Each structure stands twice: as structure tokens, then as C-alpha cells.
Amino acid sequence: MAIGARDDESRRATPAIQLVRLRKSFGEVVAVDDIDLEIHEGEFFSLLGPSGSGKTTVLRMIAGFEPPTGGAVLLQGTDVSQLAPYDRDVNTVFQDYALFPHMSVLENIEYGLKVKKVGKAERRPNQLSGGQRQRIALARALVNHPKVLLLDEPLGALDLKLREEMQVELKNIQRDVGITFVFVTHDQGEALSMSNRIAVFNNGRIEQVGTTREIYDNPATAFVAGFVGISNVLTARRSRELLGVEEPHSVRPERLRIVHHEIADGEVSVVGVVSDVQYLGADCRVRAQLDDGTFMVASVPSDGLAGVAIGGPIRLAWPRFAAFPVANTDISKGGDQ
Ligand code: ATP
Questions:
Q1: How confident is the model over 224-252, as pLDDT tens digits?
Q2: Which end of the chain, N or C, is less packed with Cβ atoms under 10 Å?
Q3: What whole-number distance in Å separates Cα of residue 57 and Cα of residue 74?
Q4: How far, in Å, is the centroid of ligand 1 from the Cα of 191?
């Protein structure tokens, strides 16, 4: 009994997916640059980054469609780097639905069973809407209960409203089936709305791995702060003036408020000139240029704009604790998006 219990424990502790110094180059281009990553069993995990940052290549190496140049892919602790895609307990859903147009809907779902030899038949996929097609692609990928489902921008071709519906649906399905989902997206909102954890990619490397909250509230680098939502990055010099720490800091626009009278205890503030006001319904974004030429964006309720005019003065304040140090990476080195 004790042995069985230990086996169970060790199985739980083994990551569903482990990438060990995983590398892929295409000639001169290093698409994936020696990355290490562990994805836990049952997680909804997103690979997030700009176009060209290496997310899809990582996914393809997990699936077995692309051989690594170096390093290894482990599934449930077993090195599968040399195994063919159909010998890995992994299925993939692609952006273009990857439905076979010559098959019926039922045949498409059954295809998943046929390739795994689990067993040996209306409308054709081109008669379905985008959302219906993607649901079928998903059903086909899930029908034989893979350990891991890989999703490569599966909602990219859908319009915004449908995409949002499908996000809720995908998350619910993942929760119900308990299968590990690895989801590739360049859309930070999508990643934040569905994931347990996120890896943020930049230039073939991972800048940060963390829960959605960690990534959003406490971005580790200036790149993450800039890519995941809008963030204000304070230069090292300004951080020293305001916070007494000579290291760049980030602060989210929604933590900023417009000061009409005095700043409160524990707050710091800057003064500038309003350069732009963008209405977004209940909230609006106020952009201010500071005396050193840099900009800060404040997200404030639309009914709190009294006295704010483009070209006019503005004072913005935020609690000290709302500013987080970020490593001084060069934001301009993002992907090619
Ligand atoms: P996207 O969202 O645009 O697909 P991505 O983050 O998934 O971007 P990858 O598709 O993994 O990025 O590409 C990473 C880098 O590798 C890019 O510079 C890309 O041009 C290059 N690359 C990918 N596949 C190949 C290939 N088959 N041959 C040559 N270069 C490739």
C-alpha cells in the first residue's frame, strides 16, 4: 500500500511537460533559445508573446512536428524528443481548425479515434460557422482523452464576440476534462482570461513564468510590463527621485489617479501636460507628457475628468506599493509585430 501511495505522489509531482534547455534554430535564426519550462498536470498554460517570439515552434516541438536542435521534451517524465507525433499522448488544435473538408462532422471526430486505432459515421465542415468548426476540432482532439492538448491560436480566426464566448467555453471544457492545455496566443487579454499560468516569450526566450496575477501585477521585466496590458515604466532616474531606488519600476495605469487637491499619505506623484484623452466608455485613458519627455497613461473613471484638458497641466499620483521593480530589458527588442 505504501509503495502504491508513493507512486501516486511521485506521479503527481512529475510535470506533465518539461522542456529542458530546448533549442531550435532555422539556419541563422534561433527561434527557441535554450528554454527551460515545467507545465503541471491539469494546468491551463499559455505561451504568450509577439509574433516571431518562438511560441509556435515550442508547441510544434512538444507535439513532435519539429525536431529540436538541442535539449529535450519530456512528457510525464519520459523523454519523447525522438518519438513521432502519433506516439506522443498529445493532440493539437490549430487556428485554421484543421478539419478535413472531405469528411462529415462525425467522421472528423472519429478521425481522432481512427489514428489512435481505438475503433474504426450530415453536414460538411464548410457548411458550419467558425465557432461550430472550432468546437468540432476541439471535440476531435479530446475524444481519445490525450494527456495534453496543444492549442495554436485556435480562436485567432473568429470575430471578437465569438472569441470571447469561446474563451469561456474553452476554460470550462478544460476544467471539466482536467486535461493539461497548452495555449499559444499573442493576445494578452486572452491569456489572462483563461490561464492558470503564463510564460511570456520574447526573442526565443522566456521573460517570465507566473500566474496571471503575478504576470499582470508584478511584471519581471520592462518587456513583460509593456506587452501584458498597458504599463508605465519609470526610468531608473525617476524611480530614484520618487521611490529612492535607482532601478526601473512599472506601474499600471489603473493605479494612477488624477490629483485635484493633495496627494495622500504613501502616494508619490508627477506633474505633466495632458497630451491625449481616449474615451473607452466607463473609463478613459489620459496620456500625460512629463518634463523629461516621457509619457504616463492613467486609466480613470470617465466622470472624473473635471479640469482635464488637452494641453493643460495634470498631476498624477499612485501608492508607492503599486510600483514594482522591473529588470532593465530593452523593450525595443520585442518580436516583429
Ligand atoms: P507567430 O505568432 O507569428 O506564429 P511565434 O511566436 O509562434 O509567432 P514562431 O512561429 O515560433 O514564432 O517563429 C519563431 C522564429 O522562427 C521566427 O523568426 C520565424 O520566422 C522562424 N521560423 C519559424 N519556423 C520556421 C521555418 N520552418 N523555417 C525558417 N524559420 C522559421
A1: 988 887 789 898 899 999 999 998 899 99
A2: N
A3: 16
A4: 20
